[in-house]
Write a structure and sequence with these properties.
This protein is mainly alpha-helical and 90 residues long. It is built from four helices and two strands; from the N terminus they run H-H-E-H-E-H.
């Protein structure tokens, strides 16, 4: 849950910073476009931190199929680089 929350927090920060690049909003304590660009960059850093956090195991609450009985917990697949996807033909 923490990685997802961190990524969404970063996306919201980037969105607020992008709006402030267009028109700086003083009630957010962003008075110049340079400050807004710093907020966008900070949001990008937060998103990168959130995506680098490990994903937790997903567990089946009640096994309904034979596959669920065989493997009750699994880790979601990680994103693969494009070169790897091209090499395996996916």
């Amino acid at each position: 849950m923490l990685p997802v929350t961190t990524v969404y927090l970063g996306l919201i920060t980037m969105f607020a910073g992008a709006i402030c690049v267009i028109k700086p909003l003083s009630f957010l304590a962003i008075h110049t476009r340079w400050q807004a660009l710093i907020v966008v960059f900070a949001g990008l850093v937060i998103v990168l931190i959130g995506t680098s956090l490990p994903a937790g195991d997903i567990r089946v609450s009640s096994p309904q199929t034979q596959l669920d009985q065989l493997k009750r917990a699994y880790t979601p697949p990680m994103l693969r680089p494009a070169a790897t996807l091209l090499a395996i033909g996916a």
